[in-house]
Design a protein that fits this description.
Blueprint (H helix, E strand, L loop, with lengths): L1 H20 L1 H13 L15 H7 L3 H20 L3 H13 L5 H18 L6 H21 L15 H8 L10 H6 L4 H17 L2 H15 L2 H4 L1 H15 L10 H4 L2 H29 L1
Helix pairs in contact: 1-2, 1-4, 1-15, 2-15, 4-5, 4-6, 4-15, 5-6, 6-13, 8-10, 11-15, 13-15
Amino acid sequence: MMPVGIILCGYATYGLGCVLAGRKAGIASVFALLMLPDASMYGLENGFFGYHWLMQISPTSGYAIGITLIALGIYIHGIRTNSFRLVLIATAFTFVAAAFRMHIAILASLVFVILLFLAWQPKKPWYRFAVIVIVILSAIPLVILFESISLAPHFISSKPQALAFFDTIHNMKPSSYEGKFNQWTMHSSSLWKIVLGYLLFLLGFLGVILPCILIVCGYLCVKSRWQIYIIPFIIIFVYLLIIVFMPVASHGDLTDYPHRPFVLVYSVILTFLYLRLFQLLQALTLSMTYQ
């Protein structure tokens, strides 16, 4: 399953690249995702944040990421053509990813639910509020039902895992900041531990990609279609919510739900950033040619 999953992930990355910036950019984005060193090889040097490592030991991740990237391509095309039907189809795609990797499907589906609400233009403003209320009321019996299912997440009876999760991952050895997280958070509030822990986590698996994507997509949200370039911000925000609110898995591994989806975040954000950099390089090359 491992080689096929990576191949499918590469094809989906190419497809997303084609939708965003054309075929050449699509080829370049595949090269960036599959060939460039990930952030675990520099900076914090925490091997537990290695993209290529986790993709190999979790072979179904490639399938789920591929499905999600296809969904992103459909969503972007739907936004550009003002087709809400395509946005609905894209959202449905993310639920299919659950058949391959539940950790990735949870993150992807939550992101697309938010994107769906952002793209939806109801005839009456109160429709949006009514749908939110219906979703919340529908989730309550589902959460209660999960308590009686051994393998389901137990939101009511389980304890928050964020602090223990950050303590665990930031004390992994070897790394270039061994023992520093405990020093920086000693006698600090839980809020500060979560904020610093998440920031270090993002830097650990994204590295220099993180500040670059915030600058690039922040600029593009103002200058271009914000419904497209807000995606990296939404996925980072939703990922934080999962880490804070998702209960510990039934088998007791507190890194299960909060750690495994980072490969999706890495794939999406690197693809977005590299495609934009490729466009800028292409435009610079053309301008130099005509001069």
